[in-house]
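One example copied in:
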Amino acid sequence: MKGNNAFLGTFDRLSQRVKGFRGSRPKMAAEVVAAGQSGRTEEVLLTGEEFQAGFGAASAGQGFRESEFKELLSNALKFDIGALLHLRTFVYLLAGTGIFLFQTYNTLAIINLALQNEKLRDEIQMSTSVITSQELKVHELQSIHNIAQDAVSLGLTTSSAPPVEIEP
């Protein structure tokens, strides 16, 4: 209820500003010789400078546009729940809701797939890192084996004392 009052209050202030703007505009009624209306369009005959400038045609249609705006706004304020009970409106709302839910599901699925993709990339990177470190260890052991074979071929024997590592 308060939302309607706030909206109506805002609309009243806006309409007062529009009326103030309309009042400050120069009056063109003296220049209009004759005016007629056929259907939804207005015909205005102008004389003098307004005819050449084309200003009169714009000001004549202004009142018609304002009345359409007021009618549209008043129709928007009158919400009829009975219109929602029509089968066609219900089907449109149902279809719109279905499309919205489908799009939301797709968005969430894409986000989920992106997270899974990132996890798999991390696992691949870790596996690659482990494989690389194992390859380096294999090459190190292969080098040690080759050195041991070369030492045996030269007639050297292995020491019974364990090796000592020197740290810098």
User: Anything to note?
Assistant: Confidence is low (pLDDT under 50) at residues 25-40.
